[in-house]
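Quick question, first post here. What does this chain look like in 3D?
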Amino acid sequence: MLARQGRRVTVYERFDQPRPVGAGFMLQPTGLAVLDRMGLTAEVETLAQPIDHLFGRAHPSGRVVLDVRYADLANPRPALGVHRAALFHVLHRAAVGAGVAFETNWPVRDAVQGRLERQDGVTSSAHDLIVDAMGAGSPVARRLLAAAGHRRMELAFGALWATTPWPDDRHFDPRALQQVYRRADTMIGVLPVGRRPYDAALLATFFWSLKHADHEHWRAEGLDAWKARVLGFWPETAPILDTLTDPDQLTMARYGHHTLPLPVATKLAVIGDAAHSTSPQLGQGVNMGLLDAFALAEALDRHDDLDRALHAYAAERRWHLRLYQALSLVFTPFYQADGRALPLIRDHILGPVSRLPGAARLLAATVSGLLLDPRPDVRVDARALTPH
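> Answer (accepted):
Ran it through. Tokens below.
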């Protein structure tokens, strides 16, 4: 977006070449609205899988405790299940096409006064603005967080993630995220994520909730014992589990929660998980990053003064971010926690309440990221987003 405004942009990439890391995710209507304005949605759709239903049931009762349909939105639009490599492919090609330069093998240690410092002490040339998009582990964001007197809350539960072939359509809905829960200490999910670029094979993202402290025990236990446990909760996952033959096929993801009080500083803007990380229970991470990028590009296009632009960006994103960070913090323990009280509330109160009149639309808007609707609107100057 910045390159399309005519700016000179350099990406400092820590790997030897730009590449994606991670499993699949959901592009919500909010993130899709940003891709719409960039003219990239159609290209992503050719690789993605439409998702119009989120469904979860409790084990062993079979009680439905999550039932969200995108058709209940005021203006229905399905989400997209996307493999990370697919979105990376589309965005990387667009960046290269817009003239973005890449510096590789550049693991960043800090950013001060428009210069980046590499981990080996090498310093970059001067830039008018540094955009920190290094994710939840960003050393720059951690320094800003500490300076503000805050700290990142490390969550006990993470998840094992794997990309597998799509099993079949007999037991799994190709247009739904499906989950099974045992209380809140066990959660299993299957998300259709379309395909990778240049590969016709359809894929799924499979995940299993797990505490970080239990990861070594999980490895020592062995795959066969773990698979037997999974099958005890969800026998239909057998075709997925059959494709997992090595524990290294499953990546342990760690989650934490933090929000920068102010995601800007002198010649610095922080976006995405670097500025605000949380559990993925509401599925907003990638979408929040896209919204941040859009708001920053728009602010820089509207304001000639850099400080005014940066504070306009922070103000534009403030309330939507605070709302969803708070919602995530509140709802995560109902799905990832020890104990029995919260799952009982989830299963016997939240589930029935979600079926009351008007609740279905509110729930769909919540998981779609549409509360305090942050999507780009027609007032935005499209010059900031489309090639000249």
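DSSP finds eleven helices and 20 strands in the chain.
The chain has a mean pLDDT of 93.
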